Amino acid sequence: MTFDCVLKAWHDHQAELRGFLIGQIKEPAMADDVLQDVFFKAMREGQDFCQLENPRAWLFRVARNALTDSRRVSRKWVPVPESLPTEHPPERAPVDELDACISRTLPDLADRDRDILQACDLGNMSQIAYARAHGLSLPAAKARIQRARERLREALARRCNVTLDDSGNVCCHAATR
After folding, report:
1. Residue 177's pLDDT is what?
2. Neighbour count for residue 127 (Cβ, 10 Å)
């Protein structure tokens, strides 16, 4: 069934629609494809299209929607190769790898040493808060944490073969021991 109102609207607005689409797409052949889709949609509307007050506005709205759809479909996709290289986790600094050794060594420390290290170095308690909570002066708390760190350092060196570089930084260790 032919709808003369669709053909008339098409005849009246097709050139203007095509100009609009070419301005948006910049490729006449693709603009013509979208224009053809708009015409088919108008034909499918049939008698409902003939009832429209403003067929030009309907045609432009459908053209804009078709543009949006065509842009979604025409996104450039990069093919994924069949075999992707294995992704390796980022390499951690040797000192960051000590976490397993520290968790194995902490239980062997004296209670006082373990307590202050877990609270201040591994937890989020400040040395001032630790001193207040344990009835210590701040200098006493600082001395206690320094001694605890030294004992932990010695235990780690024995247990995990921690080696320091010339700058005093951890360069390597045997984390599996």
Report:
1. 39
2. 18
